[in-house]
Amino acid sequence: MKAELEAIQAAALEALKDVETADALESLRIEYFGRRGKLTDVMKGMGQLSKEERPVIGKLANEVRASLTDAFEATKNALESEHQEQKLKAEAIDITLPGRKPAYGKAHPVMQTLERIEAIFTQMGFQVVTGPEVETEHYNFDALNTPPDHPARDLHDTFYLTDGHLLRTHNSPVQIRVMESQKPPVRIIVPGKAYRVDYDVSHTPMFHQVEGLLVDRHVTFSELKGVLVSFARQLFGDQTQMRFRPHFFPFTEPSAEMDITCTVCRGEGCRSCGHTGWIEILGAGAVDPEVFRAGNYDPEEVTGFAFGMGVERIANLQFRIPDIRTFYENDLRFLKQF
Ligand SMILES: [Zn+2]
Questions:
Q1: Cβ–Cβ < 8 Å for 112, 319
Q2: How many angstroms from the chain centroid is the CA of residue 206?
Q3: Quick one: which of 214, 167, 207 has its CA closest to 191?
Q4: Residues near 306 by Cβ (< 8 Å), separated by ≥ 6?
Q5: Helix (H, G, I), strand (E, B) or coil at 250
Q6: FRET pair for 241, CA 20 to 30 Å: which of 72, 216, 262, 269?
């Protein structure tokens, strides 16, 4: 029986060496330790031994049992750690691989220009205010000294809605709204959308404007020029030349348009500037006393100036796009260039 136990032990240890999976280990365990297992069988036969033999064989049997249990446990642990290692290997991340770049969106070129314009004026102390895009004839025209027979009120220019409402044709109505709600001094810019019935290479029915208004005591036209020259230099560069031409607007008197040297030919003359070397970028003027009265300001007390510019036009001067309508065709191949 002693030999039998030793043989079982040797066979079991040998078999353990070939075990590669948890399932195989379990079958082997049953083969030796199960109810009808080889070791179990031997233990069952102990009853037939003599009194002298029983303690000796019993002790040996327990030793064999203990050593095999240990060996099975060790194999089980080895299999588990191997499994764990393989799993980690399979899930390993190669941190030396280059990462995938997320696709970033960015601001539309017109918005980029609008933000630059806003940044320049806010840095000069102007406050950004907004107003409604659906306006009344009163705010869009009457209060801005634009009588009903003025060409700007022509049906062809304005999108009329019902009940005397319309889509504002400029951001100037906000001047009146601000004057009605706040006492002078005023120093504001009004960025936002305006609408006109117009569609060609340099016009879209919806466009962006930045309107400006400064009101205080003793404001002069030369201060208007100073603000606009500083603005244009910051936006277009120190080399840029400027000139003011007399013009007419119903809501300012005197009025002017401001030109800068052509950004394409730098003043030499080319097709973009109609061979003049100059490009108009904005309209401006001293606030008309009638407009002050409409806003409940006393023109004897205060003076001021206003200006307005088209953002698409300025974006176009910076980015040189032959057709302004391409800004709104939403072709990503076009928009990604800016
Ligand atoms: Zn030119």
A1: no
A2: 23
A3: 207
A4: 172, 175, 211, 212, 213, 214, 251, 252, 284, 285, 287
A5: coil
A6: 216
The tens digit of pLDDT for each residue in 94-147 reads: 888 888 888 888 889 999 999 999 999 999 999 999 999 999 999 999 999 988
Phi, psi of 313 (to 5 degrees): -65, -40
- Whole-number Å distance, alpha carbon 169 to ligand 1 midpoint, is 29
**What is the C-alpha separation between 188 and 310, in angstroms, rounded?**
17
Integer Cα distance of 36 and 32 in angstroms: 8
Superfamily of domain 109-335: Bira Bifunctional Protein; Domain 2 (3.30.930.10)
Cα 18 versus chain centre, distance: 61
* Cβ neighbours of residue 2 closer than 8 Å, sequence gap 6 or more: 56, 57, 60
Q: What size, in residues, is the chain?
A: 338
Burial class (CB in 10 A: 0-12, 13-18, 19+), 312: buried
pLDDT at 209: 96
Distance 279 CA to ligand 1 centre (A): 8
> For residue 10, how far is its CA from the centre of ligand 1 (angstroms)?
100
Report pTM: 0.69
Angle CA 314–186–207, to nearest 5: 25
Amino acid (1-letter code) at residue 112: Q
Q: Are 245 and 257 in contact (CB under 8 A)?
A: yes
| Ligand 1 centroid distance, CA of 267 (Å) | 6
How do the domains of the chain map onto residue ranges? 2-90, 109-335
* Token pair of 70 as six digits: 């240990």
Collect the ranges in the chain with pLDDT lower than 70: 152, 155-156
Dist CA 121 CA 231 (whole Å): 7
11, 256, 334 from 283: Cα distances, Å: 103, 6, 30
Ligand 1 center to 302 CA (angstroms): 40
CA 325 to ligand 1 centroid distance, Å: 21
